[in-house]
Amino acid sequence: MSFGDELERERERVMRLVRHASVSWAEAMRAHKLAPPDDGFAGRLQRLSEAAAAEQLAWQQADQAGLRWRPVPGAAQAEPPYELRPGTGRRGPEDLWLRFDEAVATMNRAIGGTDAVAVAAAFGGIASAAAELARAIADEDEIRREARELARARSAA
User: Fold this and answer.
1) 3-state class of 122 per DSSP?
2) pLDDT tens per residue across span 141-156
3) Residue 74, CA distances (Å) to 15, 78, 91, 108, 117 in order
């Protein structure tokens, strides 16, 4: 087996990882597009975080294998799904949403270029911001559930 054969096998392995991460990312984004206004919001954000982390890892390895990101035309104007956009009544701490919005802007710049390292870092930024939002919103949802139960218990008494 030659060095070239090993390199080709490694590139094929990395491309499988990239394809898998891409499918996971697309599914997470689709979940936000089709989302009803419900308590599943924190879970969707957590899945988005996990999908972004998978993309980050895949593109770090893709860079190590010598692969480049293919630029996405019009990336600078891309917007996240409706429930993740500013001004749509999204729930959660505003400072965390500002961080998420900055991560989206960084992602849009990165995917407009060819630098796999920049793309990996941008996915990492999305993963981190979405994870923090998911935790904060899950905490808010839990408090809301507990308050609802307490209010019901008082009204039943």
Assistant:
1) helix
2) 898 888 888 888 888 8
3) 24, 7, 28, 9, 20
CB-based contacts of 104, cutoff 8 Å, min separation 6:
80, 84, 126
pTM higher than 0.85, yes or no? no
Which amino acid is located at 142 in the chain? E
Give the count of domains, the chain.
Answer: 1
Q: How is residue 60 annotated by DSSP?
A: H
73 or 34, which is more confident: 73
Six token digits for residue 154: 């008082």
- Give CA–CA dist 87/99, Å, rounded: 15
- Give φ, ψ of 49 to 5 degrees: -60, -45
Structure tokens at 70: 């293919």
